[in-house]
Amino acid sequence: MKNSTTSAKAATHERIVDAAARAIRRNGYSGAGVADIMKDAGLTHGGFYAHFASRQAMLAEAADRAGAEAVQSMQRVTAGAPPQRALHAMLQAYLSDQHLKNIENGCATAALCSELPRQAPEVRSAATRRIKEMIDLVARQLPDWGQPGAHEQALVAVSTMVGALALSRAVDDPRLSQALRDAAIHHFTPSD
Predict the structure, then answer these.
(1) Nearest to 95 by CA among 13, 183, 191, 29
(2) What is the mean pLDDT of residues 94-119?
(3) What is the pLDDT of residue 157?
(4) CA-closest candidate to residue 77, choices 69, 64, 87, 67
């Protein structure tokens, strides 16, 4: 009986973290209320403290989950592309119309970057760990991976990707939104 109770509690915890990861991307950290997250997970507010010591603990797990999902999404993209086209495929997917419109399930860094400096250390630490993973993933797609300067190129690529997506979401001009994303892709696409 104990194993089924433990398993049910773990499954419930996962539902809450999933709901919180969507909520932070959709509404920001300050807009991610415990009551709404619990409702989205199909639970009552009263059960929250059976799973988390605090709201900050939940937000840290949500930041980690959202970041992990972004990295996993980009890993799937690169795995399905020829090695010499993996970075281009990643840029295309990351800066696509679908990703632009899917804030709730998209990259947490692009959705939340400006809010991170005001978050608790555990939230920032979780986000930082996942940002580093994304940088490492991009670095592995570069033609000169392992050579001096590749890490710096990956830093610039990730900064450009996140910035282009965030700005594309911020502006109210669809043509400018598309131009920002196209310019970022063009910048990192090798000429044939």
Answers:
(1) 183
(2) 94
(3) 95
(4) 87
